[in-house]
Request: fold
Amino acid sequence: MSTFHSRSNSLPSKSHPLLDEIQDHLCQLRGSEVTSAKSIRSNLACLVNLHEGIKNLIQVPSIQQAISHYQCGNWIDEILEGSLRLLDLCGFSRDVVCLIKESVQNLESCIRRNRVETSAAEDINSYVASRKKINQMVRKKFKNMKSLNQNLTPFLEKAEDLKAIVTMLKEMEAISSSVLKSALILVSAEKRTSKQRSWLLLSKFTQTSHVSHEMEQEIDGGNMLYAWNVNVLQKGMGRTTKQNVLWKLKSCEMTIQDLEEGLESFFRSLVKTRVSLLML
Reply:
């Protein structure tokens, strides 16, 4: 980030606690690897703290004075558009996770209740159909999403300090978007193509393309029930098999519940940040 110069209506100095706090969160997210549902949940928690810091930063009087002085309506509009995109993506992610949790809970309930082998197979067929529908929703969402525009409205030469803050806000949007996309890829158990793998990049600011074996295993584990061989179940679901399926479903449900809570918390922080931006 560029150095902040002192002047009558100066912005916070580079050593301002809020700027240091925000940079710490950004550095943590830049250096993180999307390795599992646990790491995505951790990134969501970090994003909540990041947005809280941003919200507090844009409420600093000197920043609001600088915005008013330089008449920064254009870049405010750009940031507001970005916050709206994040709200939409986070809301969609939250809905998808909720639908998947419901489908897992329904299957779990049916398997516990049913003792007829053909009924168990029908329940799993219904689950697979539900997951296919959800995955189609996710693919359609990704297809319709617009690419993030990293270009900023030109700044006055004297507003370089303010430009540094806006650049930081754009980076926050890019990272937030990538974390949400990674969560969707994980819970929808989509097999990643080279294009999908690029969504796991936290942003153009973090040139990380590593996808860990741990995440591969989690996605494969999710596909275990998505691509279950129903013919095997029709031949008989023994007690051991049934307990194994129920255990996997419960584990899946707990993971999804944790992500759902993280997304809900992040959605609330996005709303607060947007309200602060609207007041500029």
